[in-house]
Amino acid sequence: MNESILSRREGAVVVLSLNNPAARNALTTEMYEGLPVALAHAQRDADTGAIVLTGVGSAFCAGGDLNRLAQRRAMTPSDRRAGIEVLHHMIRAIRDCSKPVIAAVEGAAAGAGLSIALACDLLVAARDASFSVAYVKVGLSPDAGATAFLSGCVSRQLLTELCLTGKPVSGERMHSLGVANRLTERQGALAEAIALAQTLAAGPERASARIKSLCRRAGENTLDAQLDLEAQYMTESLGDDESAEGIAAFFGKRPADYVGLRRGTAVQSK
Protein backbone atom coordinates (compact mmCIF):
# COMPACT_ATOMS: atom_id res chain seq x y z
CA MET A 1 0.00 0.00 0.00
CA ASN A 2 1.29 3.45 -0.90
CA GLU A 3 2.33 5.76 1.89
CA SER A 4 0.25 8.90 2.35
CA ILE A 5 3.34 11.12 2.58
CA LEU A 6 6.22 10.35 0.24
CA SER A 7 9.69 11.58 1.17
CA ARG A 8 12.80 11.95 -0.95
CA ARG A 9 16.02 13.90 -0.69
CA GLU A 10 17.55 16.46 -3.03
CA GLY A 11 20.89 17.21 -1.35
CA ALA A 12 20.12 19.17 1.82
CA VAL A 13 16.45 19.48 0.83
CA VAL A 14 13.72 17.00 1.78
CA VAL A 15 10.74 16.86 -0.59
CA LEU A 16 7.50 15.73 1.04
CA SER A 17 4.63 14.84 -1.29
CA LEU A 18 0.95 14.41 -0.44
CA ASN A 19 0.15 11.07 -2.03
CA ASN A 20 -3.50 10.56 -2.93
CA PRO A 21 -3.48 11.42 -6.65
CA ALA A 22 -6.67 9.51 -7.52
CA ALA A 23 -8.56 12.04 -5.36
CA ARG A 24 -6.37 15.04 -6.29
CA ASN A 25 -4.56 14.55 -2.97
CA ALA A 26 -7.66 15.07 -0.87
CA LEU A 27 -6.72 14.83 2.79
CA THR A 28 -6.90 11.54 4.67
CA THR A 29 -6.45 10.51 8.27
CA GLU A 30 -3.08 9.07 7.31
CA MET A 31 -1.99 12.46 5.95
CA TYR A 32 -3.12 14.24 9.11
CA GLU A 33 -0.94 11.87 11.12
CA GLY A 34 1.90 11.39 8.65
CA LEU A 35 2.79 14.95 7.71
CA PRO A 36 3.62 16.16 11.27
CA VAL A 37 5.76 13.03 11.75
CA ALA A 38 7.61 13.63 8.47
CA LEU A 39 8.19 17.29 9.33
CA ALA A 40 9.50 16.40 12.79
CA HIS A 41 11.89 13.86 11.29
CA ALA A 42 13.23 16.43 8.81
CA GLN A 43 13.57 19.00 11.57
CA ARG A 44 15.70 16.64 13.67
CA ASP A 45 17.90 15.65 10.74
CA ALA A 46 21.16 17.62 10.76
CA ASP A 47 21.63 16.98 7.03
CA THR A 48 18.31 18.66 6.18
CA GLY A 49 18.38 22.42 5.71
CA ALA A 50 14.97 23.04 4.13
CA ILE A 51 11.76 21.25 3.17
CA VAL A 52 9.59 21.38 0.04
CA LEU A 53 5.94 20.34 0.29
CA THR A 54 4.07 19.34 -2.87
CA GLY A 55 1.47 16.91 -4.21
CA VAL A 56 1.73 13.81 -6.37
CA GLY A 57 0.11 14.09 -9.79
CA SER A 58 -1.84 17.00 -11.25
CA ALA A 59 -3.01 18.71 -8.04
CA PHE A 60 -1.42 20.08 -4.89
CA CYS A 61 -4.33 19.26 -2.56
CA ALA A 62 -8.09 19.32 -3.12
CA GLY A 63 -8.76 19.80 0.61
CA GLY A 64 -11.01 17.64 2.76
CA ASP A 65 -12.63 14.45 1.52
CA LEU A 66 -16.33 15.32 1.17
CA ASN A 67 -17.39 11.72 1.78
CA ARG A 68 -15.68 11.80 5.17
CA LEU A 69 -16.96 15.28 5.94
CA ALA A 70 -20.54 14.24 5.19
CA GLN A 71 -20.25 11.43 7.73
CA ARG A 72 -19.51 13.95 10.46
CA ARG A 73 -23.12 15.12 10.44
CA ALA A 74 -23.93 12.04 12.50
CA MET A 75 -21.24 12.84 15.08
CA THR A 76 -21.63 14.84 18.26
CA PRO A 77 -20.32 18.41 18.11
CA SER A 78 -17.40 17.45 20.38
CA ASP A 79 -16.42 14.60 18.06
CA ARG A 80 -16.65 16.89 15.04
CA ARG A 81 -14.44 19.40 16.81
CA ALA A 82 -11.91 16.69 17.65
CA GLY A 83 -11.63 15.81 13.95
CA ILE A 84 -11.01 19.43 13.02
CA GLU A 85 -8.33 19.73 15.70
CA VAL A 86 -6.40 16.86 14.08
CA LEU A 87 -6.30 18.94 10.89
CA HIS A 88 -5.28 22.00 12.85
CA HIS A 89 -2.46 20.06 14.50
CA MET A 90 -1.10 19.38 11.02
CA ILE A 91 -1.31 23.08 10.11
CA ARG A 92 0.53 24.03 13.30
CA ALA A 93 3.22 21.44 12.54
CA ILE A 94 3.90 23.17 9.22
CA ARG A 95 3.89 26.62 10.77
CA ASP A 96 6.06 25.68 13.74
CA CYS A 97 8.73 23.69 11.89
CA SER A 98 12.03 25.43 12.66
CA LYS A 99 13.37 24.82 9.14
CA PRO A 100 12.08 26.67 6.06
CA VAL A 101 9.12 24.97 4.41
CA ILE A 102 8.32 25.86 0.80
CA ALA A 103 5.07 24.93 -0.96
CA ALA A 104 5.33 23.93 -4.63
CA VAL A 105 1.83 24.25 -6.07
CA GLU A 106 0.71 22.77 -9.36
CA GLY A 107 -2.98 22.39 -10.14
CA ALA A 108 -5.56 22.90 -7.41
CA ALA A 109 -4.98 24.05 -3.86
CA ALA A 110 -8.53 24.14 -2.56
CA GLY A 111 -10.06 24.46 0.88
CA ALA A 112 -7.66 23.04 3.45
CA GLY A 113 -5.22 22.50 0.57
CA LEU A 114 -5.00 26.27 0.23
CA SER A 115 -4.39 26.53 3.98
CA ILE A 116 -1.57 23.98 3.77
CA ALA A 117 0.11 25.98 1.01
CA LEU A 118 -0.25 29.25 2.94
CA ALA A 119 0.99 27.69 6.19
CA CYS A 120 4.35 27.16 4.49
CA ASP A 121 6.96 29.89 4.82
CA LEU A 122 7.28 30.48 1.09
CA LEU A 123 5.12 29.58 -1.88
CA VAL A 124 6.08 28.73 -5.47
CA ALA A 125 3.16 28.48 -7.87
CA ALA A 126 2.71 27.47 -11.48
CA ARG A 127 1.06 30.18 -13.53
CA ASP A 128 -2.04 28.04 -14.10
CA ALA A 129 -2.33 26.75 -10.52
CA SER A 130 -5.73 27.30 -8.93
CA PHE A 131 -6.26 28.54 -5.36
CA SER A 132 -9.73 28.60 -3.81
CA VAL A 133 -11.43 28.95 -0.45
CA ALA A 134 -14.02 26.49 -1.68
CA TYR A 135 -15.98 25.81 1.51
CA VAL A 136 -18.98 27.97 0.66
CA LYS A 137 -19.65 25.87 -2.44
CA VAL A 138 -20.77 23.02 -0.19
CA GLY A 139 -22.33 25.10 2.58
CA LEU A 140 -19.31 25.09 4.89
CA SER A 141 -17.21 27.79 6.52
CA PRO A 142 -13.38 27.82 6.34
CA ASP A 143 -11.07 26.06 8.75
CA ALA A 144 -7.35 25.14 8.81
CA GLY A 145 -6.34 28.78 9.15
CA ALA A 146 -7.51 29.88 5.69
CA THR A 147 -8.91 33.22 6.90
CA ALA A 148 -5.95 33.87 9.21
CA PHE A 149 -3.35 33.26 6.51
CA LEU A 150 -5.19 35.17 3.80
CA SER A 151 -5.90 38.14 6.07
CA GLY A 152 -2.15 38.69 6.32
CA CYS A 153 -1.86 38.80 2.51
CA VAL A 154 -4.93 40.50 1.08
CA SER A 155 -7.43 43.22 1.99
CA ARG A 156 -10.49 42.42 4.08
CA GLN A 157 -12.67 43.06 1.04
CA LEU A 158 -10.80 40.58 -1.13
CA LEU A 159 -10.65 38.04 1.70
CA THR A 160 -14.43 38.30 2.10
CA GLU A 161 -14.99 37.94 -1.65
CA LEU A 162 -12.78 34.85 -1.89
CA CYS A 163 -14.53 33.20 1.07
CA LEU A 164 -18.10 34.14 0.13
CA THR A 165 -17.82 33.22 -3.55
CA GLY A 166 -15.32 30.36 -3.45
CA LYS A 167 -14.03 31.71 -6.77
CA PRO A 168 -10.65 30.25 -7.82
CA VAL A 169 -7.64 32.53 -8.14
CA SER A 170 -4.79 31.67 -10.51
CA GLY A 171 -1.15 31.31 -9.56
CA GLU A 172 -0.50 34.41 -11.64
CA ARG A 173 -2.99 36.43 -9.58
CA MET A 174 -1.56 35.10 -6.32
CA HIS A 175 1.88 36.19 -7.45
CA SER A 176 0.63 39.67 -8.37
CA LEU A 177 -0.92 39.94 -4.89
CA GLY A 178 2.40 39.02 -3.30
CA VAL A 179 1.07 35.75 -1.87
CA ALA A 180 3.24 33.55 -4.12
CA ASN A 181 6.98 34.24 -3.93
CA ARG A 182 7.83 32.69 -7.28
CA LEU A 183 5.79 32.10 -10.44
CA THR A 184 6.66 29.42 -12.98
CA GLU A 185 5.25 27.90 -16.10
CA ARG A 186 3.23 24.70 -15.81
CA GLN A 187 5.15 21.80 -14.22
CA GLY A 188 7.95 24.15 -13.18
CA ALA A 189 6.94 24.82 -9.56
CA LEU A 190 8.67 21.86 -7.95
CA ALA A 191 12.05 22.46 -9.59
CA GLU A 192 11.91 26.16 -8.68
CA ALA A 193 10.92 25.35 -5.09
CA ILE A 194 13.78 22.87 -4.73
CA ALA A 195 16.26 25.42 -6.08
CA LEU A 196 14.99 28.03 -3.62
CA ALA A 197 15.09 25.50 -0.79
CA GLN A 198 18.68 24.56 -1.60
CA THR A 199 19.67 28.22 -1.31
CA LEU A 200 17.99 28.48 2.08
CA ALA A 201 19.47 25.16 3.22
CA ALA A 202 22.95 26.63 2.86
CA GLY A 203 22.11 29.37 5.37
CA PRO A 204 22.52 29.56 9.16
CA GLU A 205 20.10 27.07 10.70
CA ARG A 206 19.48 28.70 14.09
CA ALA A 207 19.41 32.26 12.73
CA SER A 208 16.92 31.13 10.08
CA ALA A 209 14.70 29.61 12.77
CA ARG A 210 14.78 32.90 14.70
CA ILE A 211 13.95 34.82 11.53
CA LYS A 212 11.01 32.49 10.85
CA SER A 213 9.68 33.12 14.34
CA LEU A 214 10.07 36.90 13.98
CA CYS A 215 8.25 36.94 10.65
CA ARG A 216 5.45 34.74 11.96
CA ARG A 217 4.83 36.90 15.02
CA ALA A 218 5.31 40.32 13.39
CA GLY A 219 1.70 40.63 12.30
CA GLU A 220 0.24 39.78 15.70
CA ASN A 221 2.69 41.47 18.08
CA THR A 222 2.63 45.07 19.19
CA LEU A 223 5.73 47.07 18.27
CA ASP A 224 7.03 46.84 21.84
CA ALA A 225 6.51 43.06 21.94
CA GLN A 226 8.26 42.67 18.59
CA LEU A 227 11.16 44.86 19.70
CA ASP A 228 11.55 42.69 22.79
CA LEU A 229 11.56 39.54 20.69
CA GLU A 230 14.07 41.02 18.25
CA ALA A 231 16.30 41.99 21.16
CA GLN A 232 16.08 38.49 22.61
CA TYR A 233 16.93 36.80 19.32
CA MET A 234 19.71 39.24 18.45
CA THR A 235 21.26 38.63 21.87
CA GLU A 236 21.18 34.89 21.19
CA SER A 237 22.51 35.29 17.66
CA LEU A 238 25.44 37.45 18.72
CA GLY A 239 26.64 34.65 21.00
CA ASP A 240 26.07 31.91 18.43
CA ASP A 241 28.79 30.15 16.44
CA GLU A 242 26.79 30.99 13.32
CA SER A 243 27.45 34.71 13.66
CA ALA A 244 31.11 34.00 14.42
CA GLU A 245 31.31 32.05 11.16
CA GLY A 246 29.37 34.67 9.19
CA ILE A 247 31.46 37.60 10.43
CA ALA A 248 34.73 35.70 9.96
CA ALA A 249 33.68 34.84 6.40
CA PHE A 250 32.83 38.47 5.68
CA PHE A 251 36.24 39.74 6.81
CA GLY A 252 37.97 36.77 5.19
CA LYS A 253 36.25 37.54 1.88
CA ARG A 254 34.95 33.98 1.56
CA PRO A 255 31.53 32.33 1.56
CA ALA A 256 30.24 31.42 5.01
CA ASP A 257 30.23 27.65 5.58
CA TYR A 258 27.11 27.15 7.69
CA VAL A 259 26.67 23.58 6.49
CA GLY A 260 30.22 22.76 7.58
CA LEU A 261 29.52 24.44 10.89
CA ARG A 262 26.54 22.14 11.48
CA ARG A 263 28.69 19.14 10.63
CA GLY A 264 31.70 20.34 12.63
CA THR A 265 33.93 20.75 9.57
CA ALA A 266 33.92 24.54 9.12
CA VAL A 267 37.22 26.35 9.70
CA GLN A 268 36.69 29.89 10.98
CA SER A 269 39.47 32.16 9.82
CA LYS A 270 40.27 35.22 11.87
UniProtKB/TrEMBL annotation:
<dbReference type="InterPro" id="IPR001753">
    <property type="entry name" value="Enoyl-CoA_hydra/iso"/>
</dbReference>
<protein>
    <submittedName>
        <fullName>Enoyl-CoA hydratase</fullName>
        <ecNumber>4.2.1.17</ecNumber>
    </submittedName>
</protein>
<comment type="similarity">
    <text>Belongs to the enoyl-CoA hydratase/isomerase family.</text>
</comment>
<dbReference type="Pfam" id="PF00378">
    <property type="entry name" value="ECH_1"/>
</dbReference>
<dbReference type="GO" id="GO:0004300">
    <property type="term" value="F:enoyl-CoA hydratase activity"/>
</dbReference>
<dbReference type="InterPro" id="IPR014748">
    <property type="entry name" value="Enoyl-CoA_hydra_C"/>
</dbReference>
<dbReference type="InterPro" id="IPR029045">
    <property type="entry name" value="ClpP/crotonase-like_dom_sf"/>
</dbReference>
<dbReference type="InterPro" id="IPR018376">
    <property type="entry name" value="Enoyl-CoA_hyd/isom_CS"/>
</dbReference>
<keyword id="KW-0456">Lyase</keyword>
